[in-house]
Amino acid sequence: AQSVTQLDSQVPVFEEAPVELRCNYSSSVSVYLFWYVQYPNQGLQLLLKYLSGSTLVKGINGFEAEFNKSQTSFHLRKPSVHISDTAEYFCAVRGGGYQKVTFGIGTKLQVIP
Amino acid sequence: NAGVTQTPKFRVLKTGQSMTLLCAQDMNHEYMYWYRQDPGMGLRLIHYSVGEGTTAKGEVPDGYNVSRLKKQNFLLGLESAAPSQTSVYFCASSYPTGSQPQHFGDGTRLSIL
Known about the structure:
The complex is a heterodimer of chains A (113) and B (113).
Chain A: E1 2-6, E2 10-14, E3 19-21, E4 23-27, E5 31-38, E6 44-50, E7 56-58, E8 64-68, E9 73-78, E10 87-95, E11 101-103, E12 107-112
Chain B: E1 4-7, E2 10-13, E3 19-25, E4 31-38, E5 42-51, E6 54-57, E7 64-67, E8 73-78, E9 87-94, E10 103-104, E11 108-112
Parallel strand pairs in B: 2-11
Antiparallel strand pairs in B: 1-3, 3-8, 4-5, 4-9, 5-6, 7-8, 9-10, 9-11
């Protein structure tokens, strides 16, 4: 079984400030990790993914995430946020038979002008 | 390049009515999924399919049926709609390997009165 915990349901941050959205996972097998973004009234879009190799993964729109195996975490970061980053962000894990993907409940990022 | 297309985008039903949501993908993906998204609950898997002619139950399958008669289409049916099925429904598809992300449609907003 696998699970994903997103520790913050909402994160307000001022424009141009840094942000970190936290994600912890559990799994009995090796997994692949993903971050998706959902803008209002749209579907989810892939931000970045961790497959193997370097633990620091860079994605689109200036986001990056760091995989920490010992802490089973995959936190998402951006050094300077923009108003257009206001959206909901989902952490997801895919493992085992690969048929199923487990999503966190999402973190709403609100960028304040 | 359409990706994943969901129809309809919006629908209002009365309790007890039936309807079918259609998902079509043009990426030749083997796997297809139906999720529902409710506030504070993230994405919950309803049913999924690993290939043409095969379907399987997800976390919350009760009250829903699915069919995958063609590889590119995945239909979600509500036989007798209930107010608890008011939600936003997302279809997704992917290749059958763990490293590949899912591609999502823009959702169907369904209200059951």
